[in-house]
Amino acid sequence: MIRLIFFFLILPLNAHSDKHIPYFKSLAHDESWLRHYPENQDLKKQTEKFLLTEENMPVKVIEEFQNNWSDYTDWYRIELFNGIQGWIAHNQLSKKRTLLVLKDTKLYALKSYDPDSWLTIQKGLILAPKIVNLLEVDETMVKISVPRGKKSSIKGWIPLDNGVWGVSNKELQPLYD
Q: For the whole model, what pTM was predicted?
């Protein structure tokens, strides 16, 4: 009986713990080591996979690891746009939301890319590959900010298709309900 009660108390905690995964973050620095497993103390084990060198590049978090002595997530298992996976330390990631534009894409002033609509106003062309800031998600388009130097940026809308990486299906789910 006690085992049964214990099972029903623990089950909801385990079921709830992974509901938020996967989600997206971005690289916080222009140099971050992707590792084979969550360990950086033993340098003889050669845990480094390779060096990531694009600050703000979006990454998909697919697993979290917390040390027994820690109060927060220490390591994240991430996936890159090309399917490569590895572990990265918590301080190497940022909550900043970015997208990776994988193919040349037109930037629109409003949420319309219908050529027959008067609302369709093309603002420019984004040449791929390009990292852009994510501002808003719509069911068919995303509002982005394209950095132009250190202090200025261009805002606009791009179609949400296979030429854009960094938006999860969960972010689109409330739009369809």
A: 0.80
Question: What DSSP string runs through the chain?
Answer: -HHHHHHHHHHHHHHHHTTT-SEEEEESSS-EEEESSS--S-GGG--EEEEE--TT-EEEEEEEE--TT-SS--EEEEE-TTS-EEEEEGGGEES--EEEE-S-EEEESSS---TT-TT--EEEEEPSSEEEEEEEE-SSEEEEEEEETTTEEEEEEEE-STTEE---HHHHHHHH-
Say which CATH topology domain 2-94 has: SH3 type barrels. (2.30.30)
Q: Could you read off the pLDDT of 39-75 as tens digits, one per residue?
A: 766 655 667 888 999 999 999 999 999 888 888 889 9
Average pLDDT, stretch 98-122? 86
What residue segments make up the domains of the chain, in order of their start?
Answer: 2-94, 98-176
